[in-house]
Amino acid sequence: MTSFIDLTNFGVACAGLIVAFIGLFITLGSPYMDKGIRKYFEVFFSLLIAYILSDLFSQISLTMLGSDYAILSRVCVFSESFFSAILMPMLTWFLLKCAGKKTYNNPYFVVACILFISYFITLIITQFTRHIYFITDDNVYHRGPLYPTLLISPALLMLLNLTVLIRYRKSLSSRLIKAFSIYIIVPLICMLIQMCMYGLLLIVIGSSVSSLFLLTYIHREQMDVYVAQREENARAQVSINVLQMRPHFIYNTMTSIYYLCEQNPKKAMEMIESFTNYLRKNFQAIAKHGTIPFREELEHVRTYLNIEQIRFEGKLFVEFDTPHMGFRIPPLTLQPIVENAVKYGVDPELDPLYISVSTNETEDGNEIIVTDNGPGFDENENTADNNREPHIAINNIRERLSMMCNGTISFSARDGGGTIVRIYIPRNYSSIS
Question: Which of 198, 208, 203, 209 is nearest to 3 (CA)?
Answer without folding.
Answer: 198
